[in-house]
Design a protein that fits this description.
This protein has five helices and two strands. By secondary structure, the protein is of the alpha+beta class. Strand 1 and strand 2 form a beta hairpin. The chain is globular, with a radius of gyration of 17 Å.
């Protein structure tokens, strides 16, 4: 695939699954990407090129995405617990409960003395 096609495919997938540049960069970095968020932004805007291997890491094959907010003791958002897959899937109520439970466990690891509250609105 040519450079313009790859760039369009990445940007299109980000729009399809409603991912921000920061969320894409976190996933890309987690699988071994070495470029900064600013470098990826410049690439997606057509202002920079990527080394071939970096483009292959960045090219999303995301067919499923779910996220749940992580909150600090004051209730402010401090991050998101994300689940992504290259295969499409459904997300049922029990999946949401499991994701909420994992998010609360993560919050307790970061803030051990914090009294949990439900994250659901």
């Amino acid at each position: 695939m040519d450079e313009l096609g790859l760039r369009d495919r990445i940007a299109g997938t980000m729009r399809q699954v409603d991912l921000s540049l920061a969320e894409v960069w976190i996933e890309y970095f987690a699988i071994g990407g070495s470029l900064s968020e600013l470098e990826i932004d410049a690439y997606l805007r057509g202002q920079a090129e990527l080394p071939v291997l970096e483009g292959e890491l960045l090219e999303p094959y995301i067919r499923f995405y779910a996220g749940y907010p992580l909150r600090g003791p004051g209730g402010w958002n401090v991050g998101t617990l994300c689940v992504m897959s290259t295969s499409p899937r459904t997300f049922v109520d029990s999946d949401l409960r499991d994701l909420e439970s994992l998010a609360q466990e993560m919050q307790h690891e970061v803030y051990p003395g914090w009294k949990a509250w439900s994250l659901l609105p």
